[in-house]
Amino acid sequence: MAKRKKYMYYHCSDCKLYLREDLIEEQVMPMIMDLIEYDMTVKKYFYPVLADKKEKNTDKLDKEINTLRNQKSRIKDAYLKEIVDVEEFSKEYKAIDEKLEMLEQKRIETIDLNKQTFTPQHLMADRDVEKEKLIRSNKFYDMLMAEWKNKDKEEKQEFISKFLESITVEKDSKGNYKLVNLKLRKTFINQIYKLMQNGMFDMTIADEKDKEVRTTVMMDKQELQEYIERLNDYYEVSYYEVARLDEQKKGYQKKYLTIDETNDNGEKLFKLVELVTDDKKYPQKKANRIVGAIRVKEREKVS
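Given the sequence above, the corresponding structure tokens read:
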């Protein structure tokens, strides 16, 4: 006789309903993946921007952090290739993660962004290049999912509560679940706004073919120049203005070209940027917006 599968349930005392945990998680998984990506990005790249602490020498900490990150990558690759089982992976990965988090917290206390040789845009370019490589190798989603599955129940709850105040899920008469509302924590909102102020926050927008395109918002011309300068270390980079708001007409007006995935020059769309030409208040005034496309091309190898 087959064993019946056990499920965890949440009980809502107001609506007198029992909600299955795995079905709720299924509904909020896209949001969870976004939070996992954000958390990993902050830990690896954006801590200096959010820290505002005094400067000290971080060479020793940087070396220890890089060593642990390399160990973390190796054990993750071994798990994805099924070289190690989930129990061995979880134990070693968790131990590395705890050490890494402790060192990264120490590093926060040592950094003053204004005295560093890098810029926020250089950090973001490094992050975007790493993400692009993972996407092209079809490992990006697997990496995020592995990060989530490695957490136990308490760690998942702690992670979610770090970003969200509350989640509202509805259950219809057919038993289907639907995410209808979520409330972000103020600390998380403040972090997002600070990244926006530095031209470092991405969101997705739909193009004319309803395809989602990654877009950086509230980037000014100087930040764009610094971002492209760093990106040029990895690719041949081109920038095109694709649209700007015409005050005499409604909506964005195409200027030079569409935002197809690949153009006639073999350049791949890397991301869009929504430039500001005045101040950086959010939300932006519509008349204050220019949309540009950053395209990249692999450098030809010299034989």
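The two ends are 65 Å apart (CA to CA). Try to locate this feature in the token string yourself.
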